[in-house]
Model the fold of this input.
Amino acid sequence: MKRRDFIQQVSATTALVTIGGFGLQSFSTIPKKTKITILHTNDVHSHIDAFGPEDGRNANKGGVARRAHLIESIRNENPNTLLLDAGDIFQGTPYFNYYGGELEFKLMSKLKYDVATIGNHDFDNGINGLYAQLPHAEFEFISANYDFSNTIMDTHVKPYKIFIKDGIKIGVFGLGIELDGLVDPAMSKETKYLDPIEITQDMTQLLKTNEKCDLVICLSHLGYGYKTNPNKISDLKLAALTKDIDLIIGGHTHTFLPKPTVVKNIEGKNMLVNQVGCYGLNLGKIDFYFDANNNKSANGTSIIV
Amino acid sequence: MRFTYLIYLLYILLLFNCKSPKEHLTKIEGKQIQITDSIAGDADIEAFIKPYRTHIQKDLDSVLAYSVDTYTKTEGAFNTAIGNFMADAVFDESNPIFKSKTGKNIDMVILNHGGIRSIISKGNITTRTAFELMPFENSIVVVAIKGTQVDSLISYLCKSDTPHPISKLKLSVDKNFNLIEASIQGKKIEPDKTYYVATNDYLYNGGDNMTFFKPDEGLYILDYKIRNALIDNFKKVDTIRPVRDDRFIMKK
Done:
Protein backbone atom coordinates (compact mmCIF):
# COMPACT_ATOMS: atom_id res chain seq x y z
CA MET A 1 0.00 0.00 0.00
CA LYS A 2 1.34 3.43 -0.91
CA ARG A 3 1.82 5.77 2.01
CA ARG A 4 -0.40 8.46 0.53
CA ASP A 5 -3.35 6.15 0.13
CA PHE A 6 -2.83 5.03 3.65
CA ILE A 7 -3.12 8.57 4.97
CA GLN A 8 -6.19 9.25 2.91
CA GLN A 9 -7.85 6.16 4.18
CA VAL A 10 -6.95 6.90 7.76
CA SER A 11 -8.34 10.40 7.54
CA ALA A 12 -11.43 9.08 5.81
CA THR A 13 -11.87 6.69 8.70
CA THR A 14 -11.52 9.47 11.18
CA ALA A 15 -14.05 11.54 9.33
CA LEU A 16 -16.47 8.65 9.26
CA VAL A 17 -16.02 7.96 12.89
CA THR A 18 -16.79 11.57 13.60
CA ILE A 19 -19.93 11.48 11.52
CA GLY A 20 -20.79 8.21 13.16
CA GLY A 21 -20.48 9.82 16.52
CA PHE A 22 -22.92 12.51 15.57
CA GLY A 23 -25.01 10.04 13.68
CA LEU A 24 -28.11 10.07 15.79
CA GLN A 25 -28.26 13.80 15.96
CA SER A 26 -27.48 14.58 12.35
CA PHE A 27 -29.93 12.04 10.94
CA SER A 28 -32.73 13.09 13.22
CA THR A 29 -33.05 16.33 11.27
CA ILE A 30 -34.04 14.39 8.13
CA PRO A 31 -35.78 11.35 9.63
CA LYS A 32 -36.82 8.45 7.47
CA LYS A 33 -40.53 8.49 6.70
CA THR A 34 -42.48 5.58 5.34
CA LYS A 35 -46.09 5.39 4.29
CA ILE A 36 -47.78 2.01 4.11
CA THR A 37 -51.06 1.88 2.23
CA ILE A 38 -53.52 -0.92 2.94
CA LEU A 39 -56.23 -1.35 0.30
CA HIS A 40 -59.08 -3.72 0.95
CA THR A 41 -62.31 -5.23 -0.31
CA ASN A 42 -64.79 -7.70 1.19
CA ASP A 43 -67.88 -9.65 0.09
CA VAL A 44 -67.34 -8.90 -3.59
CA HIS A 45 -69.60 -11.91 -4.28
CA SER A 46 -68.62 -12.46 -7.90
CA HIS A 47 -69.57 -8.90 -8.88
CA ILE A 48 -67.21 -8.58 -11.80
CA ASP A 49 -69.25 -6.24 -13.99
CA ALA A 50 -70.33 -2.82 -12.76
CA PHE A 51 -74.01 -2.43 -11.89
CA GLY A 52 -76.02 -1.20 -14.86
CA PRO A 53 -77.72 2.20 -15.11
CA GLU A 54 -81.11 0.57 -14.39
CA ASP A 55 -80.10 -0.94 -11.06
CA GLY A 56 -82.41 0.21 -8.29
CA ARG A 57 -79.78 0.59 -5.61
CA ASN A 58 -76.25 0.58 -7.02
CA ALA A 59 -76.65 2.05 -10.50
CA ASN A 60 -73.31 2.58 -12.31
CA LYS A 61 -71.29 1.52 -9.28
CA GLY A 62 -68.64 -1.14 -8.81
CA GLY A 63 -66.83 -3.15 -11.49
CA VAL A 64 -63.47 -4.93 -11.42
CA ALA A 65 -61.99 -3.02 -14.38
CA ARG A 66 -62.53 0.31 -12.61
CA ARG A 67 -61.17 -1.09 -9.37
CA ALA A 68 -58.08 -2.24 -11.27
CA HIS A 69 -57.51 1.26 -12.61
CA LEU A 70 -57.94 2.84 -9.17
CA ILE A 71 -55.61 0.36 -7.48
CA GLU A 72 -52.96 0.87 -10.11
CA SER A 73 -53.01 4.63 -9.66
CA ILE A 74 -52.70 4.24 -5.87
CA ARG A 75 -49.79 1.82 -6.31
CA ASN A 76 -48.06 4.23 -8.66
CA GLU A 77 -48.32 6.88 -5.99
CA ASN A 78 -47.13 4.58 -3.21
CA PRO A 79 -45.43 1.28 -4.08
CA ASN A 80 -45.60 0.30 -0.38
CA THR A 81 -49.15 -0.88 -0.85
CA LEU A 82 -50.86 -4.11 0.18
CA LEU A 83 -54.16 -5.27 -1.32
CA LEU A 84 -56.29 -7.53 0.86
CA ASP A 85 -59.69 -9.23 0.63
CA ALA A 86 -61.77 -10.31 3.63
CA GLY A 87 -63.65 -13.20 2.02
CA ASP A 88 -66.90 -14.11 0.28
CA ILE A 89 -65.24 -13.77 -3.06
CA PHE A 90 -67.68 -16.32 -4.46
CA GLN A 91 -71.41 -16.37 -5.14
CA GLY A 92 -73.76 -13.70 -6.36
CA THR A 93 -73.65 -13.54 -10.15
CA PRO A 94 -73.76 -16.10 -12.96
CA TYR A 95 -69.96 -15.75 -13.30
CA PHE A 96 -69.75 -17.95 -10.23
CA ASN A 97 -72.48 -20.35 -11.35
CA TYR A 98 -70.81 -20.83 -14.71
CA TYR A 99 -67.13 -20.80 -13.85
CA GLY A 100 -67.05 -21.74 -10.17
CA GLY A 101 -64.81 -18.84 -9.11
CA GLU A 102 -62.17 -19.21 -11.81
CA LEU A 103 -62.67 -15.70 -13.17
CA GLU A 104 -62.84 -14.14 -9.69
CA PHE A 105 -59.44 -15.63 -8.78
CA LYS A 106 -57.87 -14.82 -12.16
CA LEU A 107 -58.94 -11.19 -11.92
CA MET A 108 -57.79 -10.85 -8.31
CA SER A 109 -54.43 -12.20 -9.47
CA LYS A 110 -54.31 -9.60 -12.25
CA LEU A 111 -55.12 -6.89 -9.71
CA LYS A 112 -52.21 -8.29 -7.65
CA TYR A 113 -54.08 -9.05 -4.46
CA ASP A 114 -51.53 -9.97 -1.81
CA VAL A 115 -53.69 -12.13 0.42
CA ALA A 116 -57.32 -13.07 1.13
CA THR A 117 -59.19 -14.83 3.89
CA ILE A 118 -62.00 -17.35 3.47
CA GLY A 119 -65.68 -16.43 3.85
CA ASN A 120 -68.58 -18.80 4.39
CA HIS A 121 -69.73 -18.45 0.77
CA ASP A 122 -66.32 -19.52 -0.44
CA PHE A 123 -67.48 -23.01 0.58
CA ASP A 124 -70.56 -22.79 -1.66
CA ASN A 125 -69.19 -25.29 -4.17
CA GLY A 126 -67.83 -27.34 -1.31
CA ILE A 127 -64.28 -27.36 -0.05
CA ASN A 128 -63.42 -29.34 -3.20
CA GLY A 129 -64.85 -26.52 -5.32
CA LEU A 130 -62.62 -24.02 -3.54
CA TYR A 131 -59.59 -26.26 -3.87
CA ALA A 132 -60.26 -26.75 -7.59
CA GLN A 133 -59.96 -22.99 -8.18
CA LEU A 134 -56.67 -22.54 -6.27
CA PRO A 135 -54.50 -22.92 -9.40
CA HIS A 136 -56.11 -19.70 -10.68
CA ALA A 137 -55.09 -17.69 -7.59
CA GLU A 138 -51.64 -16.09 -7.61
CA PHE A 139 -52.26 -14.77 -4.11
CA GLU A 140 -52.39 -16.66 -0.83
CA PHE A 141 -55.20 -17.53 1.54
CA ILE A 142 -54.84 -17.06 5.28
CA SER A 143 -57.02 -18.29 8.10
CA ALA A 144 -55.73 -18.84 11.62
CA ASN A 145 -58.92 -20.29 13.11
CA TYR A 146 -59.99 -22.73 10.41
CA ASP A 147 -58.15 -25.99 10.89
CA PHE A 148 -58.02 -27.58 7.45
CA SER A 149 -55.64 -30.38 8.43
CA ASN A 150 -58.18 -33.15 7.72
CA THR A 151 -59.29 -31.63 4.44
CA ILE A 152 -58.07 -31.24 0.89
CA MET A 153 -57.13 -27.62 1.72
CA ASP A 154 -54.46 -28.79 4.17
CA THR A 155 -51.19 -26.83 3.63
CA HIS A 156 -52.93 -24.50 1.14
CA VAL A 157 -54.05 -22.04 3.80
CA LYS A 158 -51.57 -20.41 6.16
CA PRO A 159 -52.57 -18.81 9.48
CA TYR A 160 -50.73 -15.57 8.70
CA LYS A 161 -48.37 -13.90 6.30
CA ILE A 162 -45.60 -11.37 6.94
CA PHE A 163 -44.78 -8.67 4.42
CA ILE A 164 -41.84 -6.29 4.55
CA LYS A 165 -42.34 -2.99 2.72
CA ASP A 166 -39.46 -0.50 2.80
CA GLY A 167 -38.22 -1.92 6.09
CA ILE A 168 -41.65 -1.94 7.74
CA LYS A 169 -42.73 -5.38 8.86
CA ILE A 170 -46.44 -6.08 8.44
CA GLY A 171 -48.07 -9.19 9.89
CA VAL A 172 -51.50 -10.16 8.55
CA PHE A 173 -53.54 -13.00 10.02
CA GLY A 174 -56.91 -14.36 8.91
CA LEU A 175 -60.07 -15.22 10.86
CA GLY A 176 -63.20 -17.01 9.64
CA ILE A 177 -66.76 -17.12 10.94
CA GLU A 178 -68.30 -20.06 12.80
CA LEU A 179 -69.46 -22.52 10.17
CA ASP A 180 -72.22 -24.23 12.19
CA GLY A 181 -75.63 -23.20 10.90
CA LEU A 182 -74.09 -21.20 8.08
CA VAL A 183 -72.29 -23.73 5.96
CA ASP A 184 -73.63 -27.19 5.25
CA PRO A 185 -71.18 -29.70 6.80
CA ALA A 186 -71.29 -31.57 3.48
CA MET A 187 -69.63 -28.49 1.99
CA SER A 188 -67.02 -27.62 4.62
CA LYS A 189 -66.37 -31.32 5.40
CA GLU A 190 -63.89 -31.64 8.27
CA THR A 191 -62.92 -27.96 8.48
CA LYS A 192 -62.66 -27.15 12.17
CA TYR A 193 -63.60 -23.73 13.52
CA LEU A 194 -61.41 -22.59 16.42
CA ASP A 195 -62.15 -19.84 18.92
CA PRO A 196 -61.21 -16.47 17.33
CA ILE A 197 -60.23 -14.81 20.61
CA GLU A 198 -57.82 -17.53 21.70
CA ILE A 199 -56.36 -17.71 18.21
CA THR A 200 -55.96 -13.92 18.11
CA GLN A 201 -54.09 -13.99 21.41
CA ASP A 202 -51.69 -16.54 19.90
CA MET A 203 -51.37 -14.60 16.66
CA THR A 204 -50.66 -11.21 18.25
CA GLN A 205 -48.12 -12.82 20.60
CA LEU A 206 -46.42 -14.36 17.59
CA LEU A 207 -46.60 -11.38 15.26
CA LYS A 208 -46.01 -8.53 17.72
CA THR A 209 -43.85 -10.03 20.45
CA ASN A 210 -41.92 -12.75 18.63
CA GLU A 211 -41.77 -11.44 15.06
CA LYS A 212 -41.73 -7.77 16.15
CA CYS A 213 -44.03 -6.65 13.37
CA ASP A 214 -44.46 -2.89 13.07
CA LEU A 215 -48.06 -3.38 11.98
CA VAL A 216 -50.48 -6.19 12.83
CA ILE A 217 -53.57 -6.54 10.67
CA CYS A 218 -56.43 -8.96 11.20
CA LEU A 219 -58.27 -9.97 8.03
CA SER A 220 -61.61 -11.15 9.34
CA HIS A 221 -64.85 -12.62 8.07
CA LEU A 222 -66.43 -12.64 11.55
CA GLY A 223 -68.80 -9.77 10.81
CA TYR A 224 -68.72 -6.16 12.03
CA GLY A 225 -71.08 -6.47 15.01
CA TYR A 226 -74.31 -8.17 16.07
CA LYS A 227 -76.67 -5.86 17.94
CA THR A 228 -79.35 -8.49 18.44
CA ASN A 229 -76.84 -11.12 19.48
CA PRO A 230 -74.19 -9.29 21.53
CA ASN A 231 -72.58 -12.54 22.67
CA LYS A 232 -71.65 -13.47 19.13
CA ILE A 233 -68.01 -12.77 18.34
CA SER A 234 -67.59 -9.90 15.89
CA ASP A 235 -64.88 -7.51 14.75
CA LEU A 236 -65.95 -4.86 17.27
CA LYS A 237 -65.93 -7.41 20.09
CA LEU A 238 -62.63 -8.93 19.04
CA ALA A 239 -61.08 -5.46 18.84
CA ALA A 240 -62.16 -4.59 22.40
CA LEU A 241 -61.08 -7.93 23.88
CA THR A 242 -57.57 -8.19 22.44
CA LYS A 243 -54.38 -6.15 22.05
CA ASP A 244 -51.62 -5.42 19.57
CA ILE A 245 -53.86 -5.28 16.50
CA ASP A 246 -53.60 -2.04 14.52
CA LEU A 247 -56.38 -2.73 12.04
CA ILE A 248 -59.19 -5.25 11.62
CA ILE A 249 -60.46 -5.48 8.07
CA GLY A 250 -63.83 -7.16 8.17
CA GLY A 251 -66.53 -8.70 6.04
CA HIS A 252 -69.62 -10.93 6.14
CA THR A 253 -72.18 -8.41 7.44
CA HIS A 254 -71.98 -6.24 4.27
CA THR A 255 -71.60 -3.23 6.56
CA PHE A 256 -71.31 0.15 4.90
CA LEU A 257 -69.47 2.47 7.26
CA PRO A 258 -69.26 6.21 6.72
CA LYS A 259 -65.67 5.93 7.96
CA PRO A 260 -63.46 3.39 9.74
CA THR A 261 -64.45 2.82 13.38
CA VAL A 262 -61.96 3.73 16.12
CA VAL A 263 -62.12 1.13 18.90
CA LYS A 264 -60.26 1.01 22.22
CA ASN A 265 -58.56 -2.33 22.70
CA ILE A 266 -58.21 -4.16 26.03
CA GLU A 267 -55.23 -1.95 26.89
CA GLY A 268 -57.18 1.23 26.12
CA LYS A 269 -55.24 1.88 22.93
CA ASN A 270 -57.06 3.12 19.86
CA MET A 271 -57.18 0.89 16.81
CA LEU A 272 -59.30 0.70 13.67
CA VAL A 273 -62.06 -1.61 12.46
CA ASN A 274 -63.13 -1.19 8.86
CA GLN A 275 -65.41 -2.82 6.31
CA VAL A 276 -66.47 -1.51 2.90
CA GLY A 277 -69.96 -2.91 2.33
CA CYS A 278 -70.05 -5.42 -0.51
CA TYR A 279 -70.09 -6.17 -4.25
CA GLY A 280 -66.94 -4.19 -5.00
CA LEU A 281 -68.82 -0.90 -4.61
CA ASN A 282 -66.03 0.59 -2.50
CA LEU A 283 -62.33 0.24 -1.90
CA GLY A 284 -61.01 0.75 1.63
CA LYS A 285 -57.77 2.69 1.96
CA ILE A 286 -55.86 2.98 5.22
CA ASP A 287 -52.53 4.82 5.24
CA PHE A 288 -50.06 4.19 8.03
CA TYR A 289 -47.35 6.86 8.40
CA PHE A 290 -44.11 5.85 10.04
CA ASP A 291 -41.58 8.37 11.19
CA ALA A 292 -38.14 7.96 12.73
CA ASN A 293 -38.44 11.16 14.70
CA ASN A 294 -38.63 10.06 18.30
CA ASN A 295 -40.19 13.28 19.52
CA LYS A 296 -43.23 12.74 17.34
CA SER A 297 -43.82 9.20 18.44
CA ALA A 298 -43.75 10.33 22.04
CA ASN A 299 -46.99 12.16 21.31
CA GLY A 300 -48.63 8.91 20.28
CA THR A 301 -50.35 8.06 17.04
CA SER A 302 -52.93 10.35 15.56
CA ILE A 303 -55.82 8.68 13.81
CA ILE A 304 -57.58 10.66 11.10
CA VAL A 305 -60.77 9.16 9.78
CA MET B 1 -5.99 -3.86 3.22
CA ARG B 2 -7.02 -4.07 6.83
CA PHE B 3 -8.01 -0.38 6.85
CA THR B 4 -10.27 -0.75 3.86
CA TYR B 5 -12.16 -3.39 5.76
CA LEU B 6 -12.30 -1.15 8.73
CA ILE B 7 -13.83 1.56 6.59
CA TYR B 8 -16.41 -0.83 5.23
CA LEU B 9 -17.16 -1.91 8.75
CA LEU B 10 -17.62 1.69 9.80
CA TYR B 11 -19.87 2.30 6.83
CA ILE B 12 -22.00 -0.61 7.91
CA LEU B 13 -22.09 0.68 11.46
CA LEU B 14 -23.01 4.07 10.14
CA LEU B 15 -25.85 2.63 8.08
CA PHE B 16 -27.12 0.88 11.17
CA ASN B 17 -26.91 4.16 12.98
CA CYS B 18 -29.08 5.76 10.32
CA LYS B 19 -31.60 2.99 10.73
CA SER B 20 -31.32 2.76 14.47
CA PRO B 21 -33.84 5.46 15.39
CA LYS B 22 -36.58 2.93 14.69
CA GLU B 23 -39.54 4.24 12.79
CA HIS B 24 -42.68 4.73 14.82
CA LEU B 25 -46.26 4.77 13.74
CA THR B 26 -47.24 8.41 14.01
CA LYS B 27 -50.38 8.79 11.94
CA ILE B 28 -53.14 6.65 10.51
CA GLU B 29 -55.48 7.93 7.84
CA GLY B 30 -58.48 5.91 6.77
CA LYS B 31 -61.01 6.48 4.05
CA GLN B 32 -63.25 4.72 1.60
CA ILE B 33 -63.19 5.28 -2.13
CA GLN B 34 -66.40 4.73 -4.07
CA ILE B 35 -66.03 2.84 -7.32
CA THR B 36 -68.18 4.89 -9.67
CA ASP B 37 -68.36 5.55 -13.40
CA SER B 38 -66.04 8.52 -12.89
CA ILE B 39 -63.19 5.96 -12.78
CA ALA B 40 -62.25 4.64 -16.21
CA GLY B 41 -62.15 0.86 -16.53
CA ASP B 42 -58.79 -0.79 -17.16
CA ALA B 43 -58.89 -1.84 -20.83
CA ASP B 44 -56.84 -5.05 -20.36
CA ILE B 45 -59.14 -6.23 -17.58
CA GLU B 46 -62.21 -5.42 -19.68
CA ALA B 47 -60.79 -7.41 -22.59
CA PHE B 48 -60.02 -10.32 -20.29
CA ILE B 49 -63.59 -10.47 -18.93
CA LYS B 50 -65.31 -10.11 -22.32
CA PRO B 51 -65.21 -13.72 -23.58
CA TYR B 52 -66.54 -14.99 -20.25
CA ARG B 53 -69.37 -12.45 -20.29
CA THR B 54 -70.28 -13.25 -23.90
CA HIS B 55 -70.46 -16.96 -23.20
CA ILE B 56 -72.68 -16.49 -20.14
CA GLN B 57 -75.04 -14.11 -21.88
CA LYS B 58 -75.40 -16.46 -24.83
CA ASP B 59 -76.16 -19.34 -22.52
CA LEU B 60 -78.55 -17.40 -20.29
CA ASP B 61 -80.49 -16.40 -23.38
CA SER B 62 -80.78 -19.95 -24.70
CA VAL B 63 -84.44 -20.95 -24.95
CA LEU B 64 -85.51 -23.91 -22.79
CA ALA B 65 -89.29 -23.85 -23.01
CA TYR B 66 -92.32 -21.74 -23.82
CA SER B 67 -94.81 -20.23 -21.40
CA VAL B 68 -98.39 -19.83 -22.64
CA ASP B 69 -99.10 -17.00 -20.21
CA THR B 70 -97.56 -14.64 -17.66
CA TYR B 71 -97.58 -16.01 -14.13
CA THR B 72 -96.98 -14.07 -10.91
CA LYS B 73 -97.00 -15.08 -7.28
CA THR B 74 -99.60 -12.46 -6.42
CA GLU B 75 -102.32 -14.11 -8.51
CA GLY B 76 -104.35 -16.19 -6.12
CA ALA B 77 -104.89 -16.95 -2.45
CA PHE B 78 -103.98 -20.36 -0.94
CA ASN B 79 -102.30 -21.51 -4.13
CA THR B 80 -100.87 -19.85 -7.21
CA ALA B 81 -100.13 -21.25 -10.66
CA ILE B 82 -96.46 -20.23 -10.49
CA GLY B 83 -96.05 -21.71 -7.00
CA ASN B 84 -97.76 -24.94 -8.07
CA PHE B 85 -95.43 -25.13 -11.04
CA MET B 86 -92.34 -24.71 -8.85
CA ALA B 87 -93.39 -27.20 -6.18
CA ASP B 88 -94.46 -29.77 -8.79
CA ALA B 89 -91.20 -29.29 -10.70
CA VAL B 90 -89.21 -29.88 -7.52
CA PHE B 91 -91.22 -33.07 -6.90
CA ASP B 92 -90.89 -34.33 -10.48
CA GLU B 93 -87.15 -33.67 -10.73
CA SER B 94 -86.01 -34.70 -7.27
CA ASN B 95 -88.13 -37.79 -6.63
CA PRO B 96 -86.17 -39.98 -9.08
CA ILE B 97 -82.91 -38.83 -7.45
CA PHE B 98 -84.24 -39.50 -3.95
CA LYS B 99 -85.58 -42.89 -5.05
CA SER B 100 -82.28 -43.95 -6.57
CA LYS B 101 -80.38 -42.85 -3.44
CA THR B 102 -82.71 -44.31 -0.81
CA GLY B 103 -85.25 -46.58 -2.47
CA LYS B 104 -87.98 -44.37 -0.99
CA ASN B 105 -90.38 -41.88 -2.49
CA ILE B 106 -90.89 -38.23 -1.59
CA ASP B 107 -94.34 -37.79 -0.03
CA MET B 108 -94.76 -34.06 -0.47
CA VAL B 109 -92.99 -30.76 -1.21
CA ILE B 110 -93.12 -27.43 0.61
CA LEU B 111 -91.33 -24.27 -0.51
CA ASN B 112 -91.86 -20.68 0.55
CA HIS B 113 -93.77 -17.99 -1.25
CA GLY B 114 -90.92 -15.52 -0.63
CA GLY B 115 -88.62 -17.84 -2.57
CA ILE B 116 -90.43 -17.08 -5.83
CA ARG B 117 -88.20 -14.20 -6.83
CA SER B 118 -89.75 -13.10 -10.12
CA ILE B 119 -92.52 -13.71 -12.61
CA ILE B 120 -92.61 -16.11 -15.56
CA SER B 121 -93.44 -14.04 -18.61
CA LYS B 122 -95.46 -15.23 -21.57
CA GLY B 123 -93.18 -16.39 -24.35
CA ASN B 124 -89.78 -17.99 -24.40
CA ILE B 125 -88.37 -19.32 -21.17
CA THR B 126 -84.58 -19.09 -21.02
CA THR B 127 -81.93 -20.09 -18.54
CA ARG B 128 -82.09 -16.47 -17.42
CA THR B 129 -85.74 -17.04 -16.40
CA ALA B 130 -84.57 -19.76 -14.02
CA PHE B 131 -81.88 -17.49 -12.57
CA GLU B 132 -84.44 -14.71 -12.06
CA LEU B 133 -86.98 -17.04 -10.53
CA MET B 134 -84.38 -18.58 -8.24
CA PRO B 135 -81.24 -16.44 -7.90
CA PHE B 136 -80.23 -18.16 -4.66
CA GLU B 137 -78.16 -21.30 -4.48
CA ASN B 138 -80.55 -23.17 -2.22
CA SER B 139 -80.49 -26.90 -2.62
CA ILE B 140 -83.19 -29.50 -2.27
CA VAL B 141 -83.20 -31.58 0.90
CA VAL B 142 -85.61 -34.33 1.90
CA VAL B 143 -86.52 -34.38 5.58
CA ALA B 144 -88.04 -37.42 7.29
CA ILE B 145 -90.63 -36.27 9.85
CA LYS B 146 -93.47 -37.91 11.77
CA GLY B 147 -97.11 -37.33 10.88
CA THR B 148 -97.49 -35.23 14.02
CA GLN B 149 -94.92 -32.79 12.62
CA VAL B 150 -96.72 -32.81 9.28
CA ASP B 151 -99.69 -31.61 11.34
CA SER B 152 -97.57 -28.70 12.59
CA LEU B 153 -96.59 -27.99 8.98
CA ILE B 154 -100.28 -27.92 8.07
CA SER B 155 -101.22 -25.59 10.93
CA TYR B 156 -98.36 -23.32 9.84
CA LEU B 157 -99.90 -23.20 6.35
CA CYS B 158 -103.43 -22.64 7.71
CA LYS B 159 -102.31 -19.77 9.95
CA SER B 160 -100.09 -18.19 7.35
CA ASP B 161 -101.85 -15.77 5.07
CA THR B 162 -99.45 -16.65 2.28
CA PRO B 163 -99.79 -19.18 -0.56
CA HIS B 164 -96.58 -21.13 0.06
CA PRO B 165 -95.94 -23.53 -2.82
CA ILE B 166 -96.86 -27.15 -2.00
CA SER B 167 -97.05 -30.36 -4.00
CA LYS B 168 -98.84 -33.67 -3.23
CA LEU B 169 -100.34 -32.18 -0.07
CA LYS B 170 -104.03 -31.27 -0.24
CA LEU B 171 -105.73 -28.97 2.26
CA SER B 172 -109.05 -27.31 2.82
CA VAL B 173 -109.93 -24.78 5.50
CA ASP B 174 -113.15 -23.11 6.59
CA LYS B 175 -113.64 -19.37 6.48
CA ASN B 176 -111.98 -19.06 9.90
CA PHE B 177 -108.90 -20.82 8.54
CA ASN B 178 -109.62 -23.95 10.57
CA LEU B 179 -108.56 -27.17 8.90
CA ILE B 180 -111.36 -29.22 7.40
CA GLU B 181 -109.41 -31.89 5.61
CA ALA B 182 -105.80 -32.75 4.82
CA SER B 183 -104.26 -35.53 2.77
CA ILE B 184 -100.94 -36.52 1.23
CA GLN B 185 -101.17 -38.19 -2.16
CA GLY B 186 -104.85 -38.92 -1.49
CA LYS B 187 -104.30 -40.58 1.90
CA LYS B 188 -105.07 -39.38 5.41
CA ILE B 189 -102.11 -38.33 7.47
CA GLU B 190 -101.16 -40.86 10.15
CA PRO B 191 -99.51 -39.43 13.29
CA ASP B 192 -96.90 -42.21 13.68
CA LYS B 193 -96.01 -42.63 10.03
CA THR B 194 -92.74 -41.15 8.72
CA TYR B 195 -93.17 -38.75 5.84
CA TYR B 196 -90.46 -37.67 3.42
CA VAL B 197 -90.86 -33.96 2.81
CA ALA B 198 -88.80 -32.23 0.12
CA THR B 199 -87.92 -28.60 0.78
CA ASN B 200 -84.82 -26.45 0.53
CA ASP B 201 -81.91 -26.18 2.95
CA TYR B 202 -82.91 -22.64 3.95
CA LEU B 203 -86.39 -23.67 5.09
CA TYR B 204 -85.12 -26.85 6.72
CA ASN B 205 -82.93 -24.65 8.88
CA GLY B 206 -85.93 -22.66 10.08
CA GLY B 207 -86.13 -20.02 7.36
CA ASP B 208 -89.52 -18.24 7.14
CA ASN B 209 -90.27 -19.58 10.63
CA MET B 210 -90.70 -23.11 9.34
CA THR B 211 -89.70 -24.66 12.63
CA PHE B 212 -91.60 -27.94 12.12
CA PHE B 213 -88.73 -29.82 10.44
CA LYS B 214 -86.89 -30.36 13.70
CA PRO B 215 -86.35 -32.72 15.32
CA ASP B 216 -86.20 -34.82 12.18
CA GLU B 217 -85.73 -38.53 11.73
CA GLY B 218 -83.28 -38.09 8.90
CA LEU B 219 -82.01 -35.53 6.45
CA TYR B 220 -81.21 -36.42 2.86
CA ILE B 221 -79.08 -33.87 1.00
CA LEU B 222 -79.71 -34.35 -2.71
CA ASP B 223 -76.89 -32.00 -3.75
CA TYR B 224 -79.35 -30.57 -6.28
CA LYS B 225 -80.08 -26.87 -6.52
CA ILE B 226 -83.67 -25.65 -6.82
CA ARG B 227 -82.63 -23.63 -9.84
CA ASN B 228 -81.14 -26.65 -11.56
CA ALA B 229 -84.35 -28.59 -10.93
CA LEU B 230 -86.28 -25.77 -12.62
CA ILE B 231 -83.86 -25.71 -15.57
CA ASP B 232 -84.10 -29.49 -15.96
CA ASN B 233 -87.88 -29.27 -15.81
CA PHE B 234 -88.03 -26.48 -18.38
CA LYS B 235 -85.86 -28.56 -20.71
CA LYS B 236 -88.25 -31.52 -20.42
CA VAL B 237 -91.63 -29.89 -20.71
CA ASP B 238 -91.40 -27.80 -23.89
CA THR B 239 -94.44 -25.74 -22.94
CA ILE B 240 -95.64 -24.74 -19.48
CA ARG B 241 -99.26 -23.95 -18.66
CA PRO B 242 -99.58 -24.21 -14.85
CA VAL B 243 -102.95 -23.62 -13.20
CA ARG B 244 -104.38 -22.74 -9.83
CA ASP B 245 -106.05 -25.86 -8.54
CA ASP B 246 -107.72 -27.34 -5.47
CA ARG B 247 -104.59 -28.33 -3.55
CA PHE B 248 -105.27 -25.66 -0.92
CA ILE B 249 -108.70 -24.08 -0.80
CA MET B 250 -111.13 -22.37 1.51
CA LYS B 251 -114.57 -24.01 1.64
CA LYS B 252 -117.35 -21.50 2.09
Q: What stands out?
A: Chain A is about 30% helix and 25% strand. The first helix of chain A runs from residue 3 to 28. The CA atoms of residues 54 and 60 of chain A lie 8 Å apart. The longest strand of chain A covers residues 282-291.
